[in-house]
Write a structure and sequence with these properties.
This protein is an alpha/beta fold and 498 residues long. The protein has 16 helices and 13 strands. Helix 14 links the parallel strand 10 and strand 11. Helix 11 crosses helix 12. It is globular and about 55 Å long.
Length: 498
Amino acid sequence: MDINSTLGALEKTIFDFSGDNPEIITLVTIVGAVISFLSFLGAGGARINQSRNSKNLERIVKDQPENLKKILFEGREKRPVVLEELNDTDTLTLGLEELKAASEYAYKTVRNNRIMTIALIVGVIAATSTLATTAWQTSGLREAVSVHDSRVEFIVQRVFFGTNREIEGATNVGPFFGYNSSKKLLTGVADVTIPNSEDVRRIGEIPLPKSFTVWKITLWQQAEDPKRHFSVQNVEILEKDEFASLASEAANGASKYPKTAFVFIHGYNTPFRSAVFRSAQIAWDMRFDGPAFLYSWPAIGNSLDYGTDIASARSAAPFLDEFLELVAGLEGVDQVHLIAHSMGSEALAEVLTRNGLSFARNDETKIDQLILAAPDLDAERFLQITDHFDNASEDITLYASSKDKALLVAQSLVRTNKPRLGFVQPDGPIVHPSIFSIDVSVASTEIFGINHNTYVKDRTLIDDIGRLLKFGVQPPDDRMPSLNAHDTPNGVYWRIRE
């Protein structure tokens, strides 16, 4: 049995033992990490005892990854800090590659010391299985070594965008996009600051400055602080060649999501700035290190303009088509994932079904994982055009919720009570052989609000999106143990356990 099979069996054992109990997972993680940590110290000690001077110590670790050197051998005074940080499973997750490299190195170091070798093997296997399981189930694919550095008060997440919005002015950070159509595709980048303190924001949250507004007139607004708020640092329009070059550079430099891009298409009632924030939040919370793309169509940003937004979403199809062709053709990008939220699914449906557009007809530009998040599509219409979605993607995942108040309004008022694809009916969500339908209603934390952002407001879902994009595991309960399968005459759907 090879090492990967062994680790896989160990991970499954942890899954079966812990179920979906985060306390058990955390406890096992801490125990495994401590065992591994002590083993590494013992292994290092076997070699360090030969010479205590700093030159020999440096020679011991010179071939190791920089992040591993920092954790294991930066100095005796650092070791208690690492152990303390193990109390929060989000602050330290060792990746399989780093552990594998460490085990190979440590084995060479202590190959003549049988006791140390046995201790090392036990520790590495325990930590690998438990910590990898935590990364898989609880931490949402954190970086391979991710020690929270409180000295970094905020990070900057770049978003590559395409839009057919018209530029209606300028701000101190770049152009201002309104809700009229430019009738052409514009491309560029937006750099977003995100607070790096867990005291300021949690997964899925987008903290903004407080303000006081009357009749859409802002009378007072708190000063923007990147340490406490999401803020736009820079917006720049780029020619397509420069845009493609920068995006390809980001794709080629990615290590966690190599040669991978994801595209986010926002929903209705969403201004450009809000769409940029949401794209940055999704990318950062998944720790997505490839190029994150946004397509922003001219939504008005007013909940009363639902009908106008539908027309705008559909009319954006030619420009969205051009943008998807551009992203799929980037050098260094082998996989393109797409998340269509709310009415963004309407724009995508137009791309996939309208004659004369090229993306759906190009066999080389297939979407890998297509996620329809609370899609505002007529369910009956979707079932008629499902083949178009299926032909354009490898897998389709539907996140639906019975607590999505915006979809309920659309269903009952705007669409004369026609079921919406993203809304869970009393007998469950829409089921079709070509899609993996998941009822995420219990993941909602805003039961009494217009909870149209369920898919990003809950850690369970953002973790699942990350796992799906990174590993592509289907069916859903193979990657999310908290799901129950439900059989229906039309097929199976999954529901998050209460």
